[in-house]
Write a structure and sequence with these properties.
185 residues; alpha+beta; two-stranded parallel ribbon; 6 helices; binds adenosine-5'-diphosphate; binds magnesium ion
Length: 185
């Protein structure tokens, strides 16, 4: 499903080269559940951004489902992101002026999925994630744990083959964090 060979990502910080990823080889099969651990600055976010096609390596190759992603232009990368990849971030990244339900349905709206199917899928996820009528509210009116559950629902609503989460419990108390991990698992 995922195959990295020699993947390198270097940042130029005011003339100084900062190594984000240094020749990483990695294989992940479909169905695997993988945790990436390391101290702050060790390249975890850089790796997830590359895996999620939000960033591209400077050297090396990344195959996603046998697709050599280095050859793809930005439009194709966006299409793969939309169809195959869900992303959950530490700071939720919900859209403040949309209700929770509208946030959950947004990826389906962008993918052109018809309203009845949008409602069916979002309704099932709202139930499964225990969000109830909270989804009529905007993100600012929800707790951190509820916001992250909304973000998980949004990441899952396109039924992605790959679900990436970058420190998804980093802003949560330990109980909400444990709930979020249980949901992801
Ligand atoms: P982690 O998520 O493990 O804390 P990061 O992937 O954010 O680590 O960062 C890895 C290294 O790359 C760090 O040294 C960081 O400063 C650097 N880095 C990450 N993103 C950028 C960027 N956009 N510009 C410059 N340096 C960056
Ligand atoms: Mg990080």
């Amino acid at each position: 499903m995922i195959r990295l060979r020699g993947v390198t990502r270097c940042f130029d910080l005011g003339g100084q080269r900062v190594m984000g990823l240094d020749a990483v080889d990695l294989d992940i099969a479909a169905g695997e559940y993988v945790a990436v651990m390391g101290p702050s600055g060790s390249g975890k976010s850089t790796l997830l951004n590359v895996l999620g096609l939000l960033d591209a390596p400077d050297a090396g190759e990344y195959w996603l489902k046998d697709e050599a992603t280095g050859r793809l232009d930005e439009a194709l990368r966006a299409e793969l992101r939309s169809r195959w990849i869900g992303f959950v971030f530490q700071s939720y990244h919900l859209i403040p002026r949309l209700t929770a339900l509208e946030n959950i349905e947004l990826p389906m709206l962008l993918a052109g999925i018809e309203p009845s199917e949008r409602r069916r899928r979002s309704g099932a996820l709202v139930e499964r994630l225990g969000l109830g009528d909270r989804v009529q509210h905007r993100p600012a009116e929800l707790s951190g744990g509820q916001r992250q559950r909304v973000a998980i629902a949004r990441a899952m609503v396109m039924q992605p083959a790959l679900l990436l989460a970058d420190e998804p419990t980093g802003n949560l108390d330990s109980r909400s964090g444990a709930e979020v991990v249980a949901l992801l698992e």
